[in-house]
Amino acid sequence: MRTSKATFSRSAVLLWTGDVTRGTGQIDASSGAFSAAATFPRLSGEPVRTTTPEELLAASHAVCFGIGLRSVLAQRGGTATRLGITATITAEKSGGRIQIIASQLEAIVEGLAGIEPAMLDEIAREAEEACTISALLRRSVPITVTVQSTETPGRIVNSEFRSV
């Protein structure tokens, strides 16, 4: 059996004006999918409606894991009416440098059908292992994953694991 390989690229363009700490930028996806004001991460918070590399990384991690979770659910014969994925990137600023120290993924699965909620831990683990952003991050920081299912009113199934 021959395995085919597909190579693709994605890009975004940043236009920056001013110095690092007081300057601003505009990041645009080459696909036209998004355009956002960008700024240097500040401990006091970013100006309204601007983003940072860490926030963009969190968005990428949420999308990657969410698509993977939906895919693994389907492969196992399950469905969900809705997935809510929150990715949080934690960073430290010290000595003039910013270092990412952790990523946390939180998933809420609504309307789960076709599989037992107890399988979510295994499904989430498989989705996290297959996520390209997780694979990149896992080389240097821990990733914590929490999955909840609201398949019956008033009942939440929690699953949490840590990938290193």
> Describe the biggest sheet?
4 strands, mixed
Overall domain count:
2
Overall number of strands: 8
Based on CA inertia axes, which overall geometry fits?
globular
CATH topology of the largest domain: GMP Synthetase, Chain A, domain 3
State the end-to-end CA separation.
Answer: 33 Å
Strand content: 35-45%
Q: What would the average pLDDT be, to the nearest integer? A: 87
Instruction: Give, in spatial order, the strands making up the sheet with the most strands.
Output: 1-2-3-4
Helicity level, as a percent range? 25-40%
Q: Would you tell me the structural class of the helices and strands?
A: alpha/beta
Low-confidence stretches: 152-159
CATH architecture descriptor name of the largest domain: 2-Layer Sandwich
Describe, in plain words, how this protein is organized in 3D.
- There is one protein chain.
- By secondary structure, the chain is of the alpha/beta class.
- The chain has 2 domains: 11-47; 52-163, K homology (KH) domain (GMP Synthetase, Chain A, domain 3, 2-Layer Sandwich).
- 25% of the residues lie in helices and 39% in strands.
- It has helices at residues 53-75, 120-130, 132-138, and strands spanning 12-17, 24-29, 35-38, 50-51, 82-94, 97-110, 143-152, 155-163.
- The protein has a 4-stranded mixed beta sheet. Strands 5-6-7-8 form a 4-stranded mixed beta sheet, covered by helices on one side.
- A hairpin with a 6-residue loop joins strand 1 and strand 2 (24-29).
- Helix 1 (53-75) crosses helix 2.
- The longest helix has 23 residues, at 53-75.
- The chain is globular.
- Residues 152-159 have low confidence and may be disordered.
